[in-house]
Amino acid sequence: IKKEEEFRCLLCKNNKGNLLLEWEEGYQLIQCKQCGASSPNISFSESSGVAVGLEPKELQYEIYVKTIDRQYDYRKNKLGSERYRYIVERLDLDPHKMQLLDVGCGAGYFLSYLKDQKIQAKGLDTNLNTVRYCRERGLDVDSGNVADEPDGKYDVVVLFDVLEHLLNPVSVMKDLVRKLKPKGYVLAFTPNIHSLSYELMGNLENTFLPFEHICFYDLKSFNFLAEKIGLQIYSLDTFGLDVMDYLLMKEHSDNFPYTEKLHEMMVLVQGCLDRMGVSNHFRLTLQNS
Description:
Blueprint lengths: L16 E6 L5 E5 L5 E3 L20 H9 L2 H18 L9 E5 L5 H8 L3 E5 L3 H9 L4 E2 L11 E7 L8 H10 L1 E12 L4 H6 L17 H11 L2 E7 L3 H13 L3 H4 L1 H14 L4 E7 L2
Parallel strand pairs: 4-5, 4-7, 5-6, 7-8
Antiparallel strand pairs: 1-2, 2-3, 8-10, 9-10
């Protein structure tokens, strides 16, 4: 835990902010007064980008495979098809000509779906288990750095739940911009800490993740980031599971099946929250000039 005077915003490096959320043993999330991003008051390892002493340990590969295999097909078809519509169809991209880079691709759900559609796509991930798993499924994935990719190659670069993990977001995003073709897109999904579910649940919201999620954004900070990396905000949407997450928390505490009894209401209200821009996940689309 850093002292108050040692705090630095991870996005703009400013040292002035307001307390947004607190957790155990002095852990605080501070919202920067200059750019609007929110960062914790903790020290980081420059090599790994995570809290000092909390570098992730690799799971034994057999355990990793067993964990991922259980829901692989469901996640591939559910997430893959939804992301395909949101990216390829919404942006009117030619699936036969486009090139896509998935940064932080995880187990390759989206890449596998794109492979079935015969779309050229590559993934990058720092987790060696992930890289091995994806390669065994015939996916083009490696553990290299974004900076090593060819400049001007990609029509789309995607970061699904990656922005919130970056220790140096401006630097990483500048590298990504160089990989884009003219008029190319960067799409990032990242938690919205200013959502209804955070208002209701505070630090119990399941995307808070102390020591893992280290930078949260809002419209002001997205504008700051876009300006620093030389891209324009094409669109900013929110989509979430705020109502379900809150009712599941209440189910646990009250021992009552709220999500079953209130399912119809839950779906309708969530649709309204998405349109109002207060759901718990941002979907940011940036475009190259």
